[in-house]
């Protein structure tokens, strides 16, 4: 069992997007950016209703950005079907109104309107690598806010040890829900320390546009150092708890999928190697990196946990 005296909610100073970034006019922003190291992405955001977000240069993908068409047409979203071509079907998911309930072991449980969150929280763009456990990968410019910013609004209690994320279940538009052998709704989870990590991101946009439903719109998780299944889509409920969440895939195949699911090229899936990955839109295979290349940010989270099944 993990012992955490410091729940880690004091987020250290980092290169943050300045206050003026939200809803600021691009020209004013650009003028104020000189010397800050921040750059404006080639964004069409102003035209789409997504807040203007500056790209945070702290997070480097060191790979080419995946073509938007590939990332938005090759998806895993089992609520819409257990195959990759669900993007057309997913257009039926109503993205507004949308609320995210944050409850459980928090001082101020609340239901947040998504548009309200977009006005209240610092929004930025981060180019993150994504690595599916099936050994394909992509690089996507996500727009969003740090998970810790949302959790701070609710005030996590010291007794909370884990965070559980629940996806919307909308039977009228999600044919997959009729496959009753699956343990709907899709649930994922992480520890409080993982949730507090600066990389843990809630995504509301991709490629400078509102996040499309097939990628988990209007709001999804992204934990870039973990296999993709940990990053639940279309989130409606976040519960802080002292019970370790048992996630969707872990319930279905506990021999193959575990709680931690950190990316590791040296630990094969029971049915295939994890040493390399195929970049979406190419035939190119590239070497997989420990923690998907994010070890400098997250390796410290797992010190002392070597006996846990950290890699499945
Ligand atoms: N609700 C829900 N979230 C989900 C999934 C899913 O089937 N349902 N698939 C997961 C898997 S396996 C991956 S790889 C990513 C895929 O995200 P993408 O379609 O944006 O590439 O979403 C994850 N989140
Ligand atoms: Mo995945």
Automatic annotation (TrEMBL):
The keyword S-adenosyl-L-methionine does not apply. Mo-molybdopterin binds at residues 75, 78-79, 132, 167, 215, 220, 231-233. Binds 1 Mo-molybdopterin (Mo-MPT) cofactor per subunit. Pfam families: Oxidored_molyb. Its EC number is 1.8.5.-. It is an enzyme of class 1 (oxidoreductase). PANTHER family: PROTEIN-METHIONINE-SULFOXIDE REDUCTASE, PROTEIN-METHIONINE-SULFOXIDE REDUCTASE CATALYTIC SUBUNIT MSRP. Heterodimer of a catalytic subunit (MsrP) and a heme-binding subunit (MsrQ). Belongs to the MsrP family. Part of the MsrPQ system that repairs oxidized periplasmic proteins containing methionine sulfoxide residues (Met-O), using respiratory chain electrons. Thus protects these proteins from oxidative-stress damage caused by reactive species of oxygen and chlorine generated by the host defense mechanisms. MsrPQ is essential for the maintenance of envelope integrity under bleach stress, rescuing a wide series of structurally unrelated periplasmic proteins from methionine oxidation. This is Protein-methionine-sulfoxide reductase catalytic subunit MsrP. It comes from Craurococcus roseus.
């Amino acid at each position: 069992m993990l012992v955490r005296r410091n729940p880690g909610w004091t987020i250290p100073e980092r290169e943050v997007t300045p206050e003026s970034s939200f809803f600021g006019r691009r020209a004013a922003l650009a003028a104020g950016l000189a010397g800050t190291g921040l750059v404006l992405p080639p964004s069409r955001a102003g035209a789409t209703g997504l807040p203007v977000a500056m790209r945070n240069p702290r997070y480097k993908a060191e790979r080419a950005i995946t073509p938007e068409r590939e990332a938005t047409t090759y998806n895993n979203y089992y609520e819409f079907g257990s195959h990759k071509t669900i993007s057309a079907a997913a257009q039926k998911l109503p993205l507004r109104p949308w609320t995210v309930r944050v409850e459980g072991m928090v001082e101020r449980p609340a239901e947040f309107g998504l548009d309200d969150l977009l006005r209240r929280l610092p929004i930025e763009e981060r180019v993150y690598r994504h690595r599916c456990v099936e050994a394909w990968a992509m690089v996507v410019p996500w727009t969003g806010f740090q998970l810790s910013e949302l959790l701070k609004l609710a005030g996590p209690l010291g007794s909370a040890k884990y965070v559980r994320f629940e996806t919307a279940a909308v039977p009228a538009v999600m044919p997959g829900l009729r496959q009753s052998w699956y343990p709907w709704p899709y649930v994922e989870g992480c520890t409080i320390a993982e949730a507090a990590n600066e990389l843990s991101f809630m995504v509301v946009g991709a490629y400078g546009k509102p996040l499309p439903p097939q990628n988990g719109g209007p709001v999804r998780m992204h934990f870039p150092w973990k296999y993709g299944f940990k990053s639940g889509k279309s989130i409606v409920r976040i519960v802080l708890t002292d019970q370790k969440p048992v996630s969707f895939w872990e319930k279905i195949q506990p021999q193959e999928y575990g709680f931690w699911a950190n990316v590791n090229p040296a630990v094969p899936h029971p049915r295939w190697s994890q040493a390399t990955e195929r970049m979406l839109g190419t035939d190119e295979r590239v070497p997989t990196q420990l923690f998907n290349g994010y070890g400098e940010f997250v390796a410290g989270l797992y010190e002392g946990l070597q006996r846990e099944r950290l890699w499945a």
